[in-house]
VOC family protein (Paracraurococcus lichenis), 130 residues
Amino acid sequence: MRFNHVANRLDARHFETVVEMLRTQLGFVELRRTERAIWLRQPGSNVDLQFSRSDTAHRDEDKPRSQVSFLSDTPREALEALAAWARDRGLEAAVGAYSDREFWLDLPATFVDFVIEAMRPELADYGIEA
């Protein structure tokens, strides 16, 4: 088997807003779409994101432990910019920290089972060739 994609759930009411954020703010392109889901890829990466529409009212209490993760030289600032973008569209947004090099963004009414993480690139330097 070969790794293909990761799937997470978005509240159906805010599905298109998050897709717009990923496309306009982070450069993702749409690969495929169905009535319930979308597959996206950020050019230059080799892992795809699938988001499924969800009508669940429950939000995982420990969802900061499940992330869609990005690398950034300025991770807090990058997430604060996404939070401001989301707030401008009427969504509640919270930015928190795991450490001084790892941060997370939650859109509580939107992200069902994950947060967006941004971390310094050196944290992903594992010393192996891919």
Remarks:
- The chain has one domain: 5-124.
- Helices lie at 15-26, 75-88.
- The beta strands are 5-11, 29-33, 37-41, 48-54, 67-71, 94-97, 102-106, 115-119.
- The mean pLDDT is 94.
